[in-house]
Recover the amino acids of this structure.
């Protein structure tokens, strides 16, 4: 019962109480509305055509009665009471046909005018059902009528389960009476047929639903209830002993079974559990079936009246309680609509009972069966509502699924790319480790030996220098293979060390100026070959300054610049040497082929990285300014 | 084994040089002897161990690839027996594989084999003075290990959890090529305290192992021969 565990007990109880009061209030209003609507009597033909003063002959005694009249016996097939009365007809009415209109009777009538039988309702199956309120109308053949008083004799056949009843009779012009007859037929005959058709459709839908969703027996139970209801509505009453009379009797008295099905459906549908002795719910219905199989007509009627009808009432009350509980627990639209429908049916049932017991005689108009259609409509609406909601949920679920799948795909793609990147980096690192070990063990050691040996003899200096340069280059190649995560500063850090070591014997000072603490922006797309090009370019600039410009001081400036298109890095190498002319054939020619080639190399290296090289050389020094791109190219620009 | 001087001047700093390549060994000996160090040279692990019998040298300079074993074993032994000895590894390329391996067993610096004689002497002097040299690439290797990667990168195993954020900042500065003075300026430190921090970093990266088996296992992971 803990619908909202978050709320403290007292608050929850108060909330439940207020909700219960609201619901009860609504149901009371509905019941009052029912009483009010049912109290509206159906329109009656003009009182001038009313024939209600009769002499009745019943069981040998004759007395005057005024219609409507209730008989005392429940069975009068052998000796039906005979009602005799008169109505006045004048020959001035000859141009229009006259009819006898019987709004309501129980169970069958035989109408005779001036001794000639013009109507026997027992031939009309729809009229034979005491619960159907079927009216009858019969045109009086003109030849039977004569000026003045005419005799009207009505024989009332009663075969239970109720006592006989004969409402006021009208004899008058057919055009006047027929509209009233049609009105009653529409309400009490046609409308139930429409609802029965609706019920039949529901039965089919529910059967299919149950067949497809076997794990939801609620639909099966409701399908059974609907099927029984349809069978009841369309089978004729067994007034005569037909071949299938017993089957008919069983089906017609199956209302308790039907109500049992509806009750169990509600229990399961509204989230309840199957009670321990749930099968007992079907006991009264099955008892009636048994009686229908073995008992006679009278017994069936007796059982139906004294067992079946109270059972239906009891189940209606239980249904109302179950639905009310569901409304309190779940307060959803479906339960609420169902609850209102149950209240309507229950109100009508109570009114019918009052009518049957003649506590509140109301012309023997039974409305319970008719009001059952309200329940059918509610059930149909509830199912549709549930179906639509399930569809929405499916849509929402599908949409969510699509989003989730897309997210997962994106995540997978990202993780795949990351994985690829990591694998690439790992492969590179492994390769680097392997290469380093190989170089360390072989080439590196040999170069070191060359350096050491060259230092022992005076003539070995150039050899030693070459070997040292080879070692330096080896370190550069290995260093640039390291994954520096796009931070070019890490490569420049190593370069500074090597440059310092290179400049120390020449007594050249290296000024290192990182304008901003982080130095250069991070380039995620930076690859080892970019690093090698940049570092070699810087090496070239350094070598030029040392060898050709005879500088005493070299300044390296590293800065991050910002312009409209974003941030980019800039590395400058400046020396205080004597410089060289770049164009013309003056100083550049004197510089020699080697330096010229070095300059060309630097330009080509810059171009391959998408960087811009600026070279300014004056007598006061040379400045090499390398402007890095916003983004390093993926492929070698010079190769393309 | 070459004894350069039998008589030890009281201020002379004793250096044990372990290097199997003869020209390189001579070169280093020359450079150190000229600077006033008292150098004992050994060409193999066995010779080096023989030199370590009584008392430890002030400085141990060792190559890693030795004909009869690995320099890491020598560093580890020396570190255990003579804690006061400063240990430096001689590396051809100054690569992290050899240098880090040496650091994890107790070395506090490295020397490039082709360094100029003046640089060699200066580096050893600085080491004795408490300044542990560190290269940008070594610093880079260490700080990249402090970043959390799901998979360990190839190379020596390195435990960096004990490094403080300040020490990691210093390593970043070195990796990016900043001088000690610049790093001190950026971090609001005194320039003189930076070498001390670097020595601390080396000490923290040293792996202290008790059992031989653990050491063997570690060595398997650390050194790939």
């Amino acid at each position: 019962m803990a619908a909202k565990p978050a709320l403290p007990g007292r608050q929850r109880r108060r909330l439940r109480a207020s909700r219960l009061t609201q619901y009860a209030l609504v149901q009371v209003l509905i019941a009052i509305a029912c009483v009010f609507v049912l109290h509206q009597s159906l329109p009656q033909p003009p009182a001038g055509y009313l024939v209600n003063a009769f002499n009745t002959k019943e069981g040998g005694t004759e007395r005057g009665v005024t219609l409507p009249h209730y008989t005392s016996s429940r069975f009068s097939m052998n000796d039906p009471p005979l009602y005799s009365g008169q109505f006045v007809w004048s020959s001035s009415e000859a141009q229009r046909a006259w009819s006898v209109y019987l709004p309501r009777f129980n169970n069958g009538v035989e109408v005779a005018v001036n001794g000639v039988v013009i109507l026997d309702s027992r031939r009309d199956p729809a009229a034979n059902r005491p619960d159907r309120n079927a009216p009858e109308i019969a045109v009086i053949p003109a030849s039977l009528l004569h000026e003045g008083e005419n005799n009207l004799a009505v024989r009332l056949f009663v075969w239970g389960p109720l006592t006989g009843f004969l409402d006021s009779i009208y004899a008058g012009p057919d055009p006047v009476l027929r509209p009233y007859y049609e009105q009653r037929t529409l309400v009490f005959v046609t409308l139930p047929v429409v609802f029965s058709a609706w019920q039949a459709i529901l039965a089919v839908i529910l059967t299919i639903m149950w067949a497809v969703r076997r794990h939801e027996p609620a639909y099966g139970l409701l399908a059974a209830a609907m099927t029984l209801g349809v069978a009841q509505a369309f089978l004729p009453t067994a007034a005569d002993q037909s071949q299938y009379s017993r089957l008919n009797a069983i089906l017609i008295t199956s209302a308790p079974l039907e109500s049992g099905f509806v009750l169990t459906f509600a229990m399961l549908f509204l989230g309840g559990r199957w009670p321990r002795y749930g099968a007992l719910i079907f006991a009264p219905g099955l008892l009636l079936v048994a009686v229908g199989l073995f008992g006679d007509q009278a017994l069936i009627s007796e059982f139906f009246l004294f067992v079946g009808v109270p059972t239906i009432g009891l189940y209606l009350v239980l249904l109302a309680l179950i639905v009310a509980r569901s409304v309190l627990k779940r307060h959803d639209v479906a339960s609420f609509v169902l609850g209102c429908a149950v209240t309507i049916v229950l109100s009508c049932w109570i009114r019918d009972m009052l009518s049957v017991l003649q506590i509140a005689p109301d012309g023997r108009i039974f409305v319970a069966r008719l009001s059952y259609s309200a329940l059918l409509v509610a059930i149909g609406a509830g199912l549709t509502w549930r179906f639509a909601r399930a569809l929405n949920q499916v849509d929402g679920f599908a949409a969510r699924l699509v989003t989730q799948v897309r997210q997962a795909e994106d995540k997978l793609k990202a993780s795949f790319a990351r994985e690829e990147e990591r694998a690439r980096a790992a492969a590179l690192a492994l390769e680097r480790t392997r290469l380093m070990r190989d170089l360390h063990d072989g080439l590196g050691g040999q170069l070191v030996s060359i350096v050491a040996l060259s230092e022992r003899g005076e003539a070995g200096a150039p050899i030693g220098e070459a070997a040292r340069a080879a070692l330096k280059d080896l370190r550069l190649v290995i260093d640039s293979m390291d994954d520096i995560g796009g931070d070019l500063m890490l490569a420049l850090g190593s370069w500074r060390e090597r440059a310092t070591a290179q400049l120390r014997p020449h007594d050249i000072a290296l000024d290192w100026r990182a304008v901003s603490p982080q130095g250069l922006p991070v380039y995620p797309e930076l690859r080892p070959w970019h690093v090698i090009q940049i570092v070699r370019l810087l090496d070239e600039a350094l070598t030029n300054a040392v060898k050709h410009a005879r500088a005493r001081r070299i300044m390296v400036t590293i800065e991050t610049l910002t312009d409209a298109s974003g941030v980019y890095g800039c590395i400058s190498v400046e020396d205080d040497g004597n410089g060289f002319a770049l164009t013309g054939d003056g100083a550049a020619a004197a510089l020699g082929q080697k330096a010229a080639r070095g300059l060309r190399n630097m330009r080509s290296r810059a171009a391959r990285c998408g960087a811009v090289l600026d070279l300014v050389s004056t007598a006061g020094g040379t400045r090499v300014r390398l402007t890095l791109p916003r983004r390093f190219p993926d492929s070698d620009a010079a190769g393309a | 084994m070459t004894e350069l001087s039998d008589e030890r001047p009281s201020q002379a700093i004793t250096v044990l040089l372990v290097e199997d390549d003869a020209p390189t060994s001579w070169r280093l000996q020359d450079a150190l002897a000229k600077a006033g160090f008292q150098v004992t040279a050994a060409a193999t692990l066995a010779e080096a161990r023989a030199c370590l019998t009584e008392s430890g040298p002030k400085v141990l300079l060792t190559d890693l690839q030795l004909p009869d074993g690995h320099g890491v074993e020598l560093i580890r032994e020396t570190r255990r027996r003579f804690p006061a000895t400063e240990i430096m590894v001689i590396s051809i390329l100054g690569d992290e594989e050899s240098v880090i391996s040496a650091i994890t067993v107790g070395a506090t610096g490295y020397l490039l084999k082709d360094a100029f004689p003046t640089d060699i002497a200066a580096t050893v002097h600085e080491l004795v003075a408490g300044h542990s040299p560190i290269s940008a690439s070594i610093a880079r290797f260490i700080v990249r290990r402090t970043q959390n990667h799901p998979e360990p990168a190839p190379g020596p195993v390195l435990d960096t959890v004990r490094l403080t954020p300040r020490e990691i900042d210093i390593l970043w500065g070195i990796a990016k090529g900043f001088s000690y003075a610049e790093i001190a300026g950026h971090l609001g430190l005194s320039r003189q305290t930076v070498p001390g921090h670097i020595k601390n970093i080396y000490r923290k990266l040293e792996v202290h192992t008790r059992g031989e088996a653990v050491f063997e296992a570690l060595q398997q992971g650390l050194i790939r021969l």
